[in-house]
Structure to design on (581 residues):
């Protein structure tokens, strides 16, 4: 009991000591740590009451439901400067769960529910665990298409069996009917047609919706890359018609972009001059609001080399999960040759994660007519076809925090070389030659996060080109922003390449982040006897840092990269707008 000096204790009385009696399950140290009131702190009877309540709750979490705490004894010294607190506890016996009864369930069997929950007979009752079990039951019903099911704790009864106190838990499940979507309301799409959005909902034959399907719909709409933001679809009910509907709210982004990149490459050796590289990219990612895409790009990667490229994407052919990509590319390689390529790609969407693609195309390589040209390359044409498999489980397309992207492709081509004697002087008669060429590619991206706003990318790439005649136009081009950063664009050419990238990121916006990177790779190139190029192979690496941030005119990226053996002033800078077709 409080002494008669309690009234004067308001004069900044300091706690001198806190002691416990009767505690066995929890140690004195554990109980002391559960209190806010501590030794050498100002005494407060209100805080002491709150601490006793916390101790009771802690005991109850471990099944000590019969715990009793006597009124604490507070003893003051002569001038009430200090107080000793004594707390007596009667723990009682630990109460375990004797029975768990679940009623009202018809869609899901009792065994499934009992196996799902962590609250078990023979264990003490933990309120936190029981609450989590109820959430797990609701999640299971949502996956079964019944997101409005309710779970109630009907009763928790204490009873005594052979002087061993136990409790009985009664859970009642109120199963609601599955939600059938009859109407869809869309807002915020000023340009985008409604059907572009509704086809991403992908309701089943019964037009039923679940929580998971709502989340998947949001993710699919974001993956279109035409919306600034997409809110999670919401279900509403009409009391008059007694039907359910879906509300989808979007904010359209800037889908028509004109992007540019400007870069500077320092001189490779002393006495030479550096040069600028550039890119112009015109992109329409939502033509006429239909979800169709059109892209035109001009790029100068290295001095004297230019690329011109057009791409077009037609989604959902005949309202099927099938899209067609058509493209044209022309590459002028110094004064050596011109390569033109026309390709066609059909994507069959198996599900939200898996896409299977058929690839076909025509490629033409035309040597330059420059009489001073010393580099030898064949006049050739290649017809090719192949297959590609893609798996994508990223949780976000802009800054993924988790997920995997896996691509693998096999392409087979028939290459015909015209006037082979002009290339190989050992041949006596002019004739045409045919060769086969095979490309095998594999790319793996792993995304994971270690703490909030931080994510990591691990990327692996492997590629191999097999043919009796591999020329400059067939090879992988390494450097710049391709494969291994820190080198000049196309500094290395290879028929075999293995590379790995490590890129930690820290986000400060929905599409904005800073990053560091370390790239490494091994490349191999067979000897080119016609051009007196020996066999080449090497291990290379690059490292650096950069930033990507969102602005009103688009996403701007900048990076600084160093290669193997580079000093700080030898770094390569690239910056400009980022666009994804």
């Amino acid at each position: 009991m409080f002494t008669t000096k309690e009234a004067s204790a308001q004069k900044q009385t300091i706690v001198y000591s806190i002691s416990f009696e009767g505690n066995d399950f929890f140690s004195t140290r554990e109980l002391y740590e559960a209190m806010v009131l501590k030794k050498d702190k100002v005494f407060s009877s209100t805080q002491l009451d709150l601490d006793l309540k916390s101790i009771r709750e802690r005991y109850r979490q471990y099944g000590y439901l019969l715990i009793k705490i006597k009124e604490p004894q507070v003893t003051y010294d002569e001038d009430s400067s200090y107080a000793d607190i004594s707390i007596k506890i009667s723990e009682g016996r630990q109460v375990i769960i004797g029975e768990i009864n679940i009623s009202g369930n018809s869609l899901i069997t009792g065994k499934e529910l009992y196996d799902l929950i962590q609250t078990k007979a023979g264990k003490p009752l933990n309120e936190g665990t029981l609450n989590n079990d109820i959430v797990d039951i609701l999640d299971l019903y949502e996956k079964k298409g019944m997101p409005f099911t309710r779970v109630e704790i009907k009763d928790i009864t204490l009873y005594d069996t052979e002087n061993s106190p136990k409790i009985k838990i009664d859970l009642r499940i109120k199963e609601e009917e599955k939600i059938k979507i009859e109407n869809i309301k869309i807002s915020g799409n000023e340009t985008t047609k409604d059907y572009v959005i509704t086809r991403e909902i992908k309701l089943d034959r019964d037009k039923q919706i679940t929580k998971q399907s709502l989340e998947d719909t949001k993710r699919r709409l974001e993956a279109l890359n035409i919306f600034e933001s997409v809110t999670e679809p919401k279900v509403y009910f009409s009391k008059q018609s007694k039907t359910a509907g879906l509300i989808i709210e979007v904010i359209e982004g800037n889908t028509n972009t004109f992007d540019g990149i400007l870069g500077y490459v320092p001189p490779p050796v002393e006495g030479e001059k550096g040069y600028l590289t550039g890119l112009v990219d015109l992109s329409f990612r939502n033509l006429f609001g239909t979800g169709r895409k059109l892209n035109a790009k001009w790029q100068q990667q290295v001095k004297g080399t230019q690329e011109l490229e057009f791409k077009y994407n037609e989604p959902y052919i005949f309202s099927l999960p099938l899209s067609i990509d058509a493209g044209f590319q022309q590459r002028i390689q110094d004064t050596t040759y011109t390569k033109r390529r026309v390709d066609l790609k059909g994507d069959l969407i198996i599900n939200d994660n898996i896409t299977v693609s058929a690839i076909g195309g025509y490629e033409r390589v035309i040597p330059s007519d420059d009489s001073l040209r010393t580099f030898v390359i064949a006049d050739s044409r290649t017809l090719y076809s192949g297959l590609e498999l893609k798996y994508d489980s990223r949780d976000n397309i802009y800054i993924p925090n988790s997920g995997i992207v896996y691509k693998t492709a096999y392409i087979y081509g028939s290459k015909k070389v015209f006037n082979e004697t002009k290339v190989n002087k050992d041949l006596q008669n002019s004739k045409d030659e045919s060769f086969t060429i095979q490309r095998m590619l594999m790319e793996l991206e792993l995304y994971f996060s270690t703490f909030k706003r931080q994510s990591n990318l691990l990327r692996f790439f492997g590629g191999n080109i097999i043919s009796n005649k591999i020329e400059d136009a067939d090879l992988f081009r390494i450097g710049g922003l391709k494969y291994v950063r820190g080198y000049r664009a196309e500094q290395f050419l290879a028929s075999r390449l293995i590379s790995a990238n490590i890129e930690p990121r820290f986000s400060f916006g929905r599409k904005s982040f800073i990053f560091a990177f370390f790239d490494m790779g091994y490349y191999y190139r067979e000897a080119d006897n016609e051009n007196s190029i020996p066999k080449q192979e090497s291990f290379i690496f690059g490292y650096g840092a950069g930033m990507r941030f969102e602005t009103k005119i688009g996403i701007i990226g900048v990076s600084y990269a160093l290669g193997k053996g580079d000093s700080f002033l030898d770094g390569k800078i690239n910056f400009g707008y980022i666009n994804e077709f």
Notes: The radius of gyration is 35 Å. Residues 230 and 250 are 5 Å apart (CA to CA).
